[in-house]
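Board notes (copied after class):
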Amino acid sequence: MRCSIIILNWNGEDMLRQYLPSVLEHTTLPDCEVVVADNGSTDGSLQLLEKYPQVRLIRFEHNYGFAEGYNKALAETNAKYTVLLNSDVEVTKEWLAPMLDYLDLHPQVAAVQPKILSWNSKEELQSKIKKQESGISIRFEHAGAAGGYLDRYGYPYCRGRLLSQVEEDRGQYDTEAQVFWTSGACMCVRTNIFKECGGLDAAFFAHMEEIDLCWRLNSRGWLLMCLPQSVVYHLGGGALGYENPRKTYLNFRNNLLMLYKNLPSARLPWVMMMRTLLDYVACMQALLTGNTQNAKAILQARLDYHRMKKQYASVRQENLHLTTVPYPATISPRSIIFDHYILKKC
């Protein structure tokens, strides 16, 4: 098997009904399969999938979360490549071939992603065209855009997305680019390398897990790329909205755990010192804007990070032992927080 496209589903009947047909229509390459791994859904997802006998179904008894759900699903494939594809992604006609062909030709590349555009803005644009109106272009989608990077304090950003600001796609990123992380919304990865590097961190449950995996890939000498000749449209926020306190909690906690797991010893103390300051600034900002639930989520994330840190001591030592690239060049030497809020550069 050349490629398994794995969609992880949990009570996503509506998402599957909306987006699975595009995956089936545009996945026509030989020796490729579409798989739905179901995380113990209790809605009508399984009944819906009965209408698609060409889809291989993997059933789990309960919800393992995004990270462990994908780990368990990949354990059941021996395909050369695996695409991790969110259930709320609409693919396009030539979405798959560029990624598989690129990996075939570049053995030093472990994972690639397409250009990820906003499904909502596509729908808005089509509506405007029908009404003969103007004034909107298709925007990048928050979760991946045109390839991801980290700043010096561990804040992720993308070509096409900085913090909460998302750019319109005007062709400015229509070039292949080496990136630090490829988006879990649509990531094509070498299956054996995914497994050899330990897969996604199950304790993360969801959020930041693909960036943590990509850090391990970078540190062990692999390259990661964004290929804009492949395009998909992502709805985004399908499981948790961007301002959901649970999402805030997972993003803050998992980001701190990721830094602890992967940062070189010489950088870890001062980065964590700065993150403590910046996290409390974010907490205060949430309080001042009346968002007390998110403020509580940030504080709880920090408490749980300190509680969990001990169990990650051996994981950190293993990561550092296997590292061949101590500090990947795709981590920016600048702070996007300082540049954005203080210098007003971005």
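Comment from the instructor: Residues 4 and 262 are 29 Å apart (CA to CA). The chain has a mean pLDDT of 94.
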